[in-house]
Write a structure and sequence with these properties.
57% of the residues lie in helices and 14% in strands. It contains 9 helices and 5 strands. Bound molecules: BIS(adenosine)-5'-pentaphosphate and magnesium ion.
Length: 189
């Protein structure tokens, strides 16, 4: 199986590049952000609770997202592999993912980390916020909070995967095609 953690700060292009990667490699795309937004849209109990945190740019609790991922990995038994987008975001989530995949006799193949400067992230997200309707893209304060959460809780995962020899940094600035080609070069190396 090809199991990729597509990593990077808010606005790095995880969702954009996932769309191309799942097509090329026939993978299942699991984005915890997308799953949470659909819970919010359906006004489920989980969605109502998650929205309060998401709108402030804060992470939702580990157990919530871990359960979401477990259910979807279980539901895709015949998958050729997965792209994990926006998950894991904490060391606890990374450990839970390793355990889950081990139970399925598989593991993470690599982490691809999109690297983009803060100024560019803020520019992209404010621009998307004009018409995306995503409440967390509406003001710079919330975007900054998402970046702070990323730096304090999520960025340390680079070390977690580096220690396993699985970390690959990829420059996330340029055209979508250029970045896609950098990603496929790493995957196929
Ligand atoms: P999530 O949905 O994961 O959001 P995020 O990580 O903040 O990142 P985005 O989805 O905004 O950015 P992206 O990297 O996917 O970039 P995109 O391709 O969209 O999480 C949202 C919230 O949910 C979190 O804050 C948290 O509350 C909660 N959550 C989710 N997962 C969680 C977890 N595991 N644990 C706990 N809480 C969790 O691109 C961004 C923009 O840039 C787009 O407009 C795009 O068109 C544009 N763009 C893309 N590529 C380029 C390029 N090369 N050049 C110029 N523009 C580009
Ligand atoms: Mg995304």
């Amino acid at each position: 199986m090809l199991n990729i953690v597509l990593f990077g700060p808010p606005g790095a292009g995880k969702g954009t590049q996932s769309a191309n990667l799942i097509e090329k490699y026939q993978l299942v795309h699991l984005s915890t952000g997308d799953i949470l937004r659909s819970e919010v849209a359906n006004k489920t109990i989980l969605g109502v609770e998650a929205k309060k945190l998401m709108d402030q740019g804060l992470l939702v609790p580990d157990d919530v997202v871990i359960k979401m991922i477990e259910a979807r990995v279980d539901a895709n038994r015949n998958a050729k592999g997965f792209i994990f987008d926006g998950f894991p975001r904490t060391t606890n989530q990374a450990k839970a993912l390793d355990q889950l995949l081990a139970r399925k006799n598989t593991s993470i193949s690599m982490m691809l980390a999109l690297e983009v400067e803060d100024d560019e992230l803020i520019k992209r997200l404010l621009n998307r916020g004009k018409d995306s309707g995503r409440p967390d893209d509406q003001n710079e304060e919330v975007i900054q909070k998402r970046i702070v959460e990323y730096n304090s809780k999520t960025a340390p995962l680079k070390n977690y995967y580096n220690e396993q020899g699985k970390f690959h940094g990829v420059k996330g600035v340029g055209t979508i095609e250029e970045i896609f080609s950098r990603l496929t070069s790493v995957i196929e190396a």
